[in-house]
């Protein structure tokens, strides 16, 4: 993924993102906000997008949302203002180079983000850096199929990734190989198990 391709793609998606992806990605948002609400503390949403998850956090959970796309972020800013979400702070920021100090957050989430950033390894390293030791990194994402017809389809879609703004054949090993993050939970998610839910502990 190239940075300019991501910018162009999400400028195009911003006006219709909620309608197209709102329901599809709802299971990941539900799991992430439920986890945060049960643990409390401070949360960083990497790739907050249009802010679909923001109304579902408890009022005492302090949420910071960042996104590279100003067009997507503008939609989130509108939601925060309309709903009066005083526990939410939003910033335009590159997830590959965050401006936060080390160990700034108790929980860091990335829902359907790692397969759309130019450098997922660097992004994940940044997520681990800003998460406190003993805290959690939550990831909901589609990862490359290991075999079967889906694997063939993903490979064919690779040439379209810049246009779609999404890497269909993103390998899960990219996440699981990070030395600062220990896998706690791994489960399939809808639709049809095509998404994966990961809970990782910052060590």
Average pLDDT number? 87
Order of helices and strands: HHHEEHEEHEHHHEE
- CA radius of gyration is 16 Å
Q: Low-confidence parts, pLDDT < 50 over ≥5 residues?
A: none
Main sheet record: 7 strands, mixed
In DSSP terms (H or I, runs of 4 or more residues), the helix count works out at: 8
Indicate the proportion of strand residues: 25-35%
Distance between the termini: 29 Å
Largest sheet, order of strands side by side?
A: 3-2-1-4-5-7-6
Global morphology:
globular
Q: From the helix content, strand content and strand pairing, which structural class follows? A: alpha/beta
Helix content: 25-40%
DSSP E strands, number: 7
Q: How does this model look, in words?
A:
With 203 residues, the protein is of the alpha/beta class. It has helices at 3-13, 17-21, 26-39, 70-83, 120-130, 149-157, 161-164, 173-176; strands spanning 42-46, 62-67, 88-92, 105-111, 131-141, 181-189, 195-202. It has a seven-stranded mixed beta sheet. Strand 6 (181-189) and strand 7 (195-202) form a beta hairpin.
Brief summary:
The chain has 203 residues and is an alpha/beta fold.
Topology:
Layout: H1 3-13, H2 17-21, H3 26-39, E1 42-46, E2 62-67, H4 70-83, E3 88-92, E4 105-111, H5 120-130, E5 131-141, H6 149-157, H7 161-164, H8 173-176, E6 181-189, E7 195-202
Parallel strand pairs: 1-2, 1-4, 2-3, 4-5
Antiparallel strand pairs: 5-7, 6-7
């Amino acid at each position: 993924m190239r940075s300019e391709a991501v910018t162009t793609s999400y400028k195009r998606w911003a006006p219709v993102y909620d309608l197209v992806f709102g329901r599809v990605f709802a299971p990941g948002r539900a799991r992430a906000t439920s986890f945060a609400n049960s643990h409390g503390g401070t949360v960083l949403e990497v790739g907050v997008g249009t802010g679909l998850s923001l109304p579902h956090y408890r009022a005492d959970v302090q949420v910071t949302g960042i996104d590279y796309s100003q067009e997507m972020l503008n939609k989130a800013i509108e939601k925060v203002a309309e709903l009066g979400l005083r526990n939410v702070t939003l910033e335009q920021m590159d997830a590959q180079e965050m401006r936060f100090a080390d160990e700034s957050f108790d929980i860091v989430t990335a829902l359907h983000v790692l397969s759309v950033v130019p450098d997922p390894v660097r992004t994940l390293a940044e997520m681990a850096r800003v998460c406190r030791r003993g805290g959690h990194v939550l990831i909901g994402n589609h990862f490359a199929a290991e075999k079967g017809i889906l694997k063939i389809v993903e490979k064919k879609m690779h040439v379209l990734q810049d246009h779609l703004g999404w890497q269909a054949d993103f390998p899960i090993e990219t996440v699981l190989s990070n030395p600062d993050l220990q896998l706690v939970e791994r489960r399939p998610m809808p639709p049809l198990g095509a998404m994966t839910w990961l809970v990782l502990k910052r060590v």
